[in-house]
Amino acid sequence: PRCHGCHRALTLPPQTEPNVARVGRVASRLCQELRLARPAVCQQAVELFQRDVVTAWARSVLRPGEACGLLLGQRCGHWDILADWNLTMPGTPKPPVRPPVPPPPGAPVEHILFLTDLHWDRQYQPGSAVACPDPLCCRGEPLGGPGSAGFWGSYGKCDLPLHTIEALLEHAVGTVANGSLASSRPVVGSWQ
């Protein structure tokens, strides 16, 4: 049933706008049927990423059997990472290489700190479970003892607590003149 559902879902034509919602419904149902996550997590994750998934799917060079093999394993199809891929480059010639010109001696120096993908979790709870069935842990009631989230953060399926990022930025203010903060995605735990 898993493989059949995957093949069926990937044979839907993804190019048209109404199909984004339809693909989202199919993906959410498939996520739940395959027990990839709790129903609420499946639904919210699909809502967050369905447009990106449909765009990637519409532009993909993988056939349904290859995609299902990649997603669900060899029982559902064959995907070979070493297979030959053909990438057609445009006929536009490359621009000439212009080596950078170094600044003159004594020119002012500027220090820039560029921070990206800090993954702040506003629901981070020190002492909570580091391991959990959800995509993002270190939330909820404190447990204490081994396997609990640290004050400054924890490895695993945990994003950072706000006080860690605040401490980082306070330290950076005294160390670096200019900084830039960039984020490409909302917090991963948007299903809650």
From TrEMBL:
<keyword id="KW-0378">Hydrolase</keyword>
<dbReference type="GO" id="GO:0006685">
    <property type="term" value="P:sphingomyelin catabolic process"/>
</dbReference>
<protein>
    <submittedName>
        <fullName>ASM phosphodiesterase</fullName>
    </submittedName>
</protein>
<dbReference type="GO" id="GO:0005615">
    <property type="term" value="C:extracellular space"/>
</dbReference>
<feature type="domain" description="Saposin B-type">
    <location>
        <begin position="1"/>
        <end position="80"/>
    </location>
</feature>
<keyword id="KW-0325">Glycoprotein</keyword>
<dbReference type="GO" id="GO:0016020">
    <property type="term" value="C:membrane"/>
</dbReference>
<dbReference type="GO" id="GO:0061750">
    <property type="term" value="F:acid sphingomyelin phosphodiesterase activity"/>
</dbReference>
<dbReference type="GO" id="GO:0005764">
    <property type="term" value="C:lysosome"/>
</dbReference>
<dbReference type="InterPro" id="IPR008139">
    <property type="entry name" value="SaposinB_dom"/>
</dbReference>
<dbReference type="GO" id="GO:0046513">
    <property type="term" value="P:ceramide biosynthetic process"/>
</dbReference>
<keyword id="KW-1015">Disulfide bond</keyword>
